[in-house]
Amino acid sequence: MWDTNDYSLRRHNTFGLDVRCMRFAEYGSVEELRGLLAELRECPVRRLLHIGGGSNLLFRADFDGLVLHSGILDFDIVRTDGDAVYVRAGAGERWDDFVAWTVAMDLYGAENLSLIPGEVGASAVQNIGAYGAEAKDIIDSVEAIDVATGEVVHIPVAECGYGYRTSRFKTKDAGRYIILSVTYRLAQRFTPNLTYGGLRREVEARGIDPVDLTAADVRRIVIEVRRQKLPDPEVKGNAGSFFVNPIVSRDRFVDIWQHHPEMPSYDAGQEVKIPAGWLVEQCGWRGRRLGPAGVYDRQALVLVNEGGATGADIVALSRAIQTDVCRQFGVWLQPEVMFV
Ligand SMILES: Cc1cc2nc3c(=O)[nH]c(=O)nc-3n(C[C@H](O)[C@H](O)[C@H](O)COP(=O)(O)OP(=O)(O)OC[C@H]3O[C@@H](n4cnc5c(N)ncnc54)[C@H](O)[C@@H]3O)c2cc1C
Fold first, then answer.
1. Cβ contacts of residue 139 below 8 Å, gap of 6+?
2. CA 274 – CA 259 distance, rounded (Å)
3. Whose CA is nearest to atom 1 of ligand 1?
4. Count of domains in the chain?
5. Are 116 and 135 in contact (CB under 8 A)?
6. Which of 35, 149, 284, 286 would give a disulfide with 300, using CB separation of 3.0 to 4.6 Å?
7. Does residue 269 carry a pLDDT above 90?
8. CA 156 to CA 162: how far, in whole Å?
9. Is the pLDDT confidence value at 268 over 90?
10. Ligand 1 pocket: which of 58, 67, 126, 171 to mutate (most atoms <8 Å of CB)?
């Protein structure tokens, strides 16, 4: 276990913000975590945050509390059932290491989610998604510890409350559980998932016949495309998509569409989803800066730390964008990134 005071979180958030926390503890096993939680029941802290790779967090300021981080690692095949192979992954594993491992082991289902930053534990909190796949499609169950009681529970996927980039761990049970491991259900037979048009077109552009496509090809293509579109947080601090794509009523949509018939949109049941990046771009924000915070020039949905930005600088930029989008389109963008 690693336990220290007054610690910089700079390497623990992909915006690269130099914020400090009062105490930081990384545990390597369930027993160590249980010990820490028992201590906290004796001597409570004002604030507690469990962090993963910090790739979906925006620290507004220093954190006057305890930050916990999982060092629970390992991938284990726990059972097979026909074509399905159940793999348990420790919450502290890097998500993309897990995806690379599955592809190398000829286990399929995670390849479309290649190169998403962060850790396995958060994949189950966030229900990460990209290129036509979501974590919930391959999660079988989540093993978690109840912070208040220390009890370990196994939650089947059907009880995780999954929706678009959300789960019960982010909503009604936020802060209640710490995820210890996630069990994924992978397939031994490869069936490419090319439901996302953009990925299908990338495959075609490379002259690969979908019949010959392998999971390693999908992983390679997804990585290439992601590297072209998104800034590497090691080079330019960012947290991926900053805003959620807004879902508006049909009336609201028609209102906007009458003035902007070129606006892209997607059906969302009774309502309509509009790409947040398009709205931001229409307001002229792509490639613009507000002090040391900016909007990525290749993707208007990504806010970046141009160097030396603070959390307050990023918040100021996000509010300026929200205000402009609201003024022009009457839609208030909601952040996908969690403000701490
Ligand atoms: C360049 C870039 C591209 C991205 N692309 C995508 C994308 O394509 N699709 C997508 O869905 N997301 C994307 N993201 C967002 C981000 O990668 C995901 O949200 C990721 O799952 C966050 O993982 P993390 O480990 O960094 O979690 P953190 O940001 O550290 O935490 C996220 C949440 O999970 C909680 N948490 C973390 N670990 C645990 C645990 N063990 N137990 C309980 N709670 C925990 C935290 O408290 C917090 O609420 C991108 C981010 C970046 C920087």
1. 123, 124, 157, 160, 162, 182, 183, 184, 185
2. 14
3. 240
4. 3
5. no
6. 286
7. no
8. 11
9. no
10. 126
Please state the separation of Cα 65 from the chain's center in Å: 23
Give φ, ψ of 299 to 5 degrees: -160, 110
Are 80 and 65 in a shared domain?
Answer: no
Q: Domain holding 122: CATH number?
A: 3.30.465.10
Amino acid at 24: F
Q: Is the CB of 129 under 6 A from ligand 1?
A: yes
* One domain, residues 103 and 218: yes
User: Which residues have a catalytic role annotated?
Assistant: 165, 241, 336
- Tell whether 248 and 294 lie within a shared domain: yes
Regarding whether 104 and 209 lie in a shared domain, the answer is yes
Q: What's the CATH number where 29 sits?
A: 3.30.43.10
Write out the two tokens for 308.
């030396």
3-state secondary structure (DSSP) of residue 63: strand
The overall average pLDDT reported for the chain is 95
49 shares its domain with 88: no
First-to-last C-alpha distance (Å) of the chain: 25
Whether residue 90 is found in the same domain as residue 225: yes
Does residue 180 line the site of ligand 1, with CB under 6 A?
A: no
Which residue has a Cα nearest atom 15 of ligand 1? 56
Using one digit for the tens of pLDDT, what is the confidence trace for 110-157? 999 999 999 999 999 999 999 999 999 999 999 999 999 999 999 999
| Average of per-residue pLDDT across 88-101 | 98
- Check whether 44 has a pLDDT greater than 90: no
Query: In the numeric block, which tokens belong to residue 148?
Result: 């208040």
Q: Which of 32, 93, 95, 116 gets mutated to test ligand 1 (max ligand atoms within 8 A of its CB)?
A: 116
E-assigned strand segments in 137-277:
139-146, 152-156, 177-187, 237-241, 247-248, 266-268, 271-273
The domain containing residue 315 runs over which residues? 237-339
